[in-house]
Write a structure and sequence with these properties.
Layout (H helix, E strand, L loop, with lengths): L14 E7 L5 H12 L4 E3 L7 E9 L6 H6 L2 E9 L1 E3 L8 E4 L9 H10 L2 E5 L8 E2 L2 E2 H6 L9 E14 L5 E9 L5 H11 L4 E11 L2 E2 L4 E2 H6 L2 H6 L12 E5 L1 H8 L4 E2 L5 E9 L2 E10 L2 E7 L2 H10 L4
Parallel strand pairs: 1-14, 3-12, 15-17
Antiparallel strand pairs: 1-3, 2-3, 4-11, 4-12, 5-6, 7-10, 8-9, 10-11, 12-13, 16-19, 17-18, 18-19
Length: 321
Amino acid sequence: MNAPRTRVQRRPVHGVLLLDKPLELSSNDALQKVKWLLRAEKAGHTGTLDPLATGVLPLCFGAATKFSQLQLEAAKTYEAIARLGQTTTTADAEGEVLRERAVDLAALTVERLAAVQAQFTGAIRQVPPMYSALKKDGKALYEYARAGIEVERPAREVTIHALELSLTQDSEGLPAIRMLVTCSKGTYIRTLAEDVGEALGCGAHLRALRRIDTGGLGVERCISLEALAAMGEGERLQQLQPVDALLASHTAVTLGEQDAARFLTGLPRKGAWADAEAVAVYGENPQALLGVGRVVRGELIPGRLLSSLEIQQILEDTPRP
């Protein structure tokens, strides 16, 4: 007879944990493992990272879940390795090889790489891969693909903010391209690798992918799941970034006690503020994040707000100087 499972006593936890997601673990599985380690009541992630990818995965807890959408929209930077000379059914290492071509390394000069780099920098159009979670008629594309059905996918515009290409070898010592990519939401790095391979005349598929930055949150600030699990409970909680770690690009506005109280009820406030689409609003007494909003013609308009209970819990858990 199996022993009964120990029930985890959940508690309010507020903040952002920057996880270096391990290989072969889905984003949701990683989130659930960290949620269990922190005994957190409420958690969410900021957009999925494929099981075959590693790197920055910001995990939001408590009040921070209200701002997770901001990271979904943020620019992201990846380091990718694409094997040259092979295309696959999935555009990555999981698929079956569709076609093999010879790779003429002598033709892949610095000038040739620079020209292809320029071709794929800026606004480009991508056809989403069949093996993706995008839906057509209420059904994910990968479901059609697994059934052997290919459906028409309209090309979508994405932005490649920066791209660096260089010759390298993959983990098996075969010719590959290293891609350092900063891109907009909705960019498929698998598709980019495939398209770059076609532009180089030999084809390619993705072999390794690592996200090294999302919205200014870099991998150097991340902790591994293994390291987190080895810590004591108090030390784990110390790894949390404050809720406003997601709001670094926002303009900060601080309100006095009375204005702060009214703002928290959803009332706009008047002040000598410049127009701003993204504002992080703080209370002065006590010093605490109240939420986000925007300023239009001197009026501070509330957006997503923290509750009084969330603010109280954050203040109680914040170490005093």
